[in-house]
Amino acid sequence: MRLAFTHIALHVADLDRSIQFYEDYCGLETVHLRDEPQGANVAWLAEPGKGDQFVVVLIDKGAPQPQPDGDFSHLGFALESKQAVDDVAARGGDLLAWPPRQAPYPVGYYCALKDPDGRFVEFSYGQPLGPGAELAESTGD
Fold first, then answer.
1. For residues 31 and 134, what is the distance between their CA atoms, to the nearest angstrom?
2. Which long-range contacts (CB under 8 A, 24 or more apart) does 104-111 make?
3. Which of 45-54, 67-76, 131-140 tops mean pLDDT?
4. 92 and 36 assigned to the same domain
5. pLDDT by residue (tens digit) across 57-72?
6. What is the pTM (predicted TM-score) of this model?
7. Rounded CA separation 19/58 (Å)
8. Do 45 and 91 have their domain in common?
């Protein structure tokens, strides 16, 4: 049996605000948008050029899901440098949930913002996944 992890679906209170957040901060692009006359509107977002591999599905009309302190559930996005993590943190302003910090391997250097529904979205460098993984490994960052 061959499996592929293709998507994660999240209810959001305001679809337009959520799309804007994930496009602006996470670099995702809308690859599918569907207006349901009798139901919730739906958007599929993906990394550029990867809409056939994995998407974040946003479903309108959900209740906000703010996370309590100590709940580290999150979506994670890898960046190419520590400076890129710092830049996201600075740009996030009041959305900043976790200021930039260094943690032991394999966590690396990271920060988190809260999306419009209060979910944590992590931005990291130095994990063994995504952009910067090879560079961090070779430089010991």
1. 29
2. 108/136, 108/141, 109/82, 109/85, 109/141, 110/85, 111/85, 111/86
3. 45-54
4. no
5. 999 988 777 788 789 9
6. 0.90
7. 8
8. no
